[in-house]
Amino acid sequence: MNVEIIREYCLSKKGVTESFPFDDVSLVMKVMNKMFALIDLEEAKTISLKCDPDRAIELRERYSGIEGAYHFNKKYWNSVRFNSDVDDKLMKELVDHSYEEVIKKFTKKLRAEYDALL
Asked: What percent of the chain has pLDDT over 70?
């Protein structure tokens, strides 16, 4: 898995936009303006993804390519290294999980706007 493939995968999801709100090397993926992923473009080695707290710990214990995300609340965010022991299938699953973690916290109003998207 590389940066461009994961970027395209994120953008293929419903309601997703990309931006650079922090600097010119931290690509942020948002669903309905809520962040679910941050891709480090400077070194192009990691993606930070939201995760269920219990699952986050399990993943960190099982995979050397997953650790608590730098500059994020490590209870909820993991950093996943590209070209590590995390295969493409798991990488996409983790992106999906992050996306779903954000969607499930939507307000009723935001959920209705999301549901109205094609």
From this structure: 100
- Where residue 101 sits, what CATH number does that domain have? 3.90.1150.30
> What is the domain extent for residue 82?
3-116
Chain mean pLDDT for the chain: 95
* Contact between 108 and 100 (Cβ < 8 Å): no
Provide CB contacts within 8 A for 57, sequence distance 6+: none
The separation between the first and the last C-alpha atoms of the chain, rounded to the nearest angstrom, is 28
pLDDT attached to residue 44: 86
Cβ atoms 49, 58 nearer than 8 A:
no
CA 83 to CA 94: how far, in whole Å?
15
**Tally of domains in the chain:** 1
